[in-house]
């Protein structure tokens, strides 16, 4: 299963949240969608690989909000997180006329169909972002995983 989200988001105490366009400010977890809840739904389908790609900021701006109540995740394994940026940092976008996309998406599109282990594919994205002069010193992609088997996005279903 693959889940991709591009938009406003944040991380607070190791939990990631996606912010709907109509969420009141300042953002609090109860107005947002928890990525961990999405992963719980993915795990319930007993997938062989869960890939979460978050093209969002991970900076937390509202220290007065409490964390949302979320059941602990099962120790499922074979879960990979590809974050557009490192913890407590912002993710940058490219503007091309009316169209905009994240730096992360620019390089993800280049590598996503490679026939290699998903973490190695994401390593290639990380290296390309690291060499992009527009974000050098501002944005560093992060990869976290519990991959216990060599899984690729090109594996047969």
TrEMBL record:
UniProt-recorded Gene Ontology molecular function terms: cysteine-type endopeptidase activity
Top-rank lineage group of the source organism: Eukaryota
GO process terms (BP): proteolysis
Every Peptidase C14 caspase domain range: 1-145
Classification via SUPFAM superfamilies: Caspase-like
UniProt protein name: MALT1 protein
Native organism: Zapornia atra
């Amino acid at each position: 299963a693959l889940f991709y989200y591009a938009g406003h988001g944040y991380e607070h105490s190791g939990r990631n949240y996606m912010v709907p366009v109509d969420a009141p400010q300042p953002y609090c977890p109860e107005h947002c969608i928890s990525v961990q809840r999405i992963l719980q739904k993915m795990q319930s389908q007993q997938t062989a690989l869960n890939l979460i790609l978050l093209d969002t900021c991970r900076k937390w701006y509202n220290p007065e909000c409490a964390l949302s109540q979320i059941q602990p995740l099962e120790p499922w394994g074979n879960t990979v997180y590809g974050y557009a940026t490192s913890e407590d940092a912002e993710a940058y976008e490219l503007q091309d006329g009316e169209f905009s996309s994240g730096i992360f998406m620019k390089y993800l599109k280049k590598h996503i169909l490679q026939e290699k282990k998903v973490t190695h594919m994401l390593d290639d994205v990380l290296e390309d972002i690291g060499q992009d002069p527009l974000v050098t010193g501002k944005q560093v992609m992060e990869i976290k995983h519990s991959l216990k088997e060599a899984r690729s996005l090109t594996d047969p279903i």
